[in-house]
Structure formats: C-alpha cells, structure tokens
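#random but structural
TW: two for the price of one
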Amino acid sequence: MTRTTTALLLAASLFSADAFSQASQSAPADDFKPSALNQPGQEYPQVNSQGYARFRINAPKADSVKVSLGLGGRGGTKLTKGADGFWTGTTEGPMDEGFHYYNVTVDGGKFNDPGAQNFYGSVRWESGIEIPAHDQAFYELKAVPHGNVQQILFPSKSTGTSRRAFVYTPPGYATDKSKKYPVLYLQHGWGEDETAWSNQGHANLIMDNLIAENKTKPFIIVMTYGMTNEVKWGKIREFKIDPFQTVLTDELIPYVDANFRTLANRDNRAMAGLSMGGMETKMITMNKPDTFGYYGLLSGGLYNPEDLNGKAKPKLVFLSCGSRERPDGVKKAATDLTAAGYKAVSYVSENTGHEFQTWRRSLHELAPLLFN
C-alpha cells in the first residue's frame, strides 16, 4: 500500500455520518423558529431550542417525502402528508450544533428544499440548515472592522484553464499599502469547493472577530478548489495528488505572491485543510516541506514522526477532530510528535462529528497559533 493510499484511508476512517446528537431524546419543545439559513420570507425549515429540526414541503401529488441530513444521512426523516398537500416532519432527535447539509427525496427523486439556501457539498448544491450553537459568537457577524473576500482567476498552464480561488484579506489591507502579510492556504473537503470555507465555514468572520480581539496576527487566507471531486466517493484510492500539487505550488502560490502583498517565504506560509483537504495538506507538505512552515489537519488524518524525519522541520503541526470522530488518535499523534521534538498541538471539538462546527472551531483554535 502506498503512503498516499494510507493517508487517504486514515482520513476517511475519521468520517462520522451521524449528525444527530447523542443526548437523550425527549419530546421536542414547541418553540420552533425559522432557520437562519432560510430563503427570504420562508418559515421552514425550523429549529427549536433543543436542536430539533422541522421540515414542511409542498408536494400535493407525491406519495412519499423524506429528508436526509448530514454526511451520509441517517435513513432520513419521513414526512407526513396533510390535507393541504404539505408534508411535515421533525427529526427523531436533536441535531449537533452548527451547519448541516441536507436534501429532500420526493418519490425517489432527490431535490433541494425550496425554503432553504443552497451550499456546495456532496458534489452538488445542497440545502443547508444551521442549528444554533452555544459558542456561535466566535463566527457571528459583529460590529468590528471587516476584511474582504474576493474572487480571483489565475492562469493554470498545467490544466490549460483559468482557475478560481477566493482570497481573504484582513481589515486594514486596503489602507496600509506598505504592510505585507503571511498566507494560509486553506482547503475544503471532498464534495465541496472553494466556496465552502467562506459560506459554510465563516472563515472570514472568524478571522475578523479574532483580529478585533487581538487574539491572532492578521494574515491572508487563500481558498481554491482542490480537485478532490475528480474521484468519486468510494474510489478515493484512485486519487492522485500530483495535478493539484502542481496547481497549488507552481501556479497559485506564485500568482498570489505576485498580486498580493505577501511575505513570500516558508516561515510565513501555512497549509491546512478539512477532511480530504487535510489529506491533501499532508501529502503536499511532505512532498514540499520547503514551501510551508505550518501544517494543519482538521479531521484529515495524522502525521507521525517518521513522516517528518529528515525534512525541513515545521514550525507547528496542528491536528484536530470532533469528539464523535477518533479523538484518541489525534491526541496520541500530537503527543508522539511533541516527544520527537516537534511543536504539535491537538484540539478536539466537543459533541461534534465530521461536520463544519468541528472545522469552524478548529480554525478558531489554529489561527492564533500561526506565524508567531
């Protein structure tokens, strides 16, 4: 088995398909309110104070309607048809806090909920729902100075196309023309694209709030498509890192350094990613240790000392996952790296699985550790 295949299988083993909370279930409280991610003026889907989700779909001629939530779903929430042609149903238990993808199956066909906004995940635009979190203040929109997220198109000779990336520049970037910044290259997971970290992850708001609280050094974040969806789910063994590695290191990084005020050296460049983006991070940082000085795997596999021996020493290795994944492995890996003389930090998001609340919290923990 190749090292690449081993890394892919390890990160895949961290997946948690269950988006439902493990808390004891009881009758849902009758205080449902529209989800924060609904289309304008739409009352459904709704969430209550306990984290239950309720759906209402207009399908008067349908014979069956079901809602599937989260990575892999859980068999779905079956809706019941009313005399008015609307189908209504509530999840069997409370959902984990944070963001979840979902879709609606009507008579065997998969559709999006017309009441909800759509987000790119599972290799398609899917409906999204937000379960309010007890710690959501760190990614809320606040009255603080804001950075800017802009789309860039950069030439790629290796693919014969222009490719897209989104670049977050911190508050003050546009006004102080003399200042240069470190850069984090931040990757999405399988089934997602370069919109994920801004739309689902609120990476820009996390950074704005941390900077306003003087908890992190300001830095640029670059988010691009990692070519992960070129391989279908279930055939991850076939994924090859070489094409994306070329795009990232030979094309995107030089473009960013030429067009943004960056500190263009290893000590001021980081790479991190969630899930399959973490696998990409591991493979590229091992192949190109002179390019990045900081590494982050968010539910995306592990490093061990043997992976890093004989290579340029990283200034930081950050490993994280949700408590519903495999936290013992993450903690042990960080302990082993520390014992071998590396600066390694582990973080476990409590009561979350393989989902964006884990990765939002992980970025919030990682950012203050970078470029110090």
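TW: number two ↓
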Amino acid sequence: MNFVSQNKSKHIEPVDEESVTQAHKAAYGDGDSSGLSAHALGAAAALQALKKFTSGGQSAGSGSQTQIISLAMAEASKLFDQSGGAGSGNKQDAVNGAAMTVMKLLVQSKFSGIIGGGNSGGLGGLMKLAQQFA
C-alpha cells in the first residue's frame, strides 16, 4: 500500500486495457503466464480481483477501495506463486503492479463512483468493466 501512496502521480496514467485483457487471458484463460512480466501478472491479478469483487456482491461502501486493492494484491501474490514466477521482475513487482492497476482504475472517471458518494452507482460501473473483460 505504501507503493500506491508514494506514487500518486501515476494514478492518473491511463490503463492499457488491451494489455490488461491479454495478460488476464494468458494467466486465467489459457493458464500460461510464463511469458508475462511481474507487472503484467499484477495487472491480470487486478482484473481477476475486480471480477471476484463484483461477483461476490460486495457493497460499494467506504472501505471498498481498500478491499479491492487488498484483494488484488493477494491475488497477484497467489498468481505469482502458482505460475512459478514471472518472465521478469519479482513477487513484490507483481503485487505493486496489481495495486497500481486497481488504483488507476479507481481514480479514472469510469470508477469515480466506487470510492464513495451516496447514489453514485459505483458498483454498477465496476461490474460493467469487469464484464467487459470476461
């Protein structure tokens, strides 16, 4: 979480949805993440965490941001171990990549509602994006 906090300027950088989709497909669809970098593993894990979060019926309350980031970090760690490592980078890089990918998505406009605000419908937007990558 310190990595995310210390790199706030990167939160507004756009997420390469094509790369995230391809990494997710390789890691979770094809089951072959051997050629992925640690950052790509983290991005794939972040998307998987978003899918788990939305399919689990989680509420979009004040703790949602922390819950999603924590879930993504845990998923990245698990994926890194299951895949026997990454093509480049280490486990911490994968965990950081997952956290940063989720944070970028949360900060970007399509996720502005997920981090709070009455009738913002953030969970609906999150589910829409997760389904987009299915």
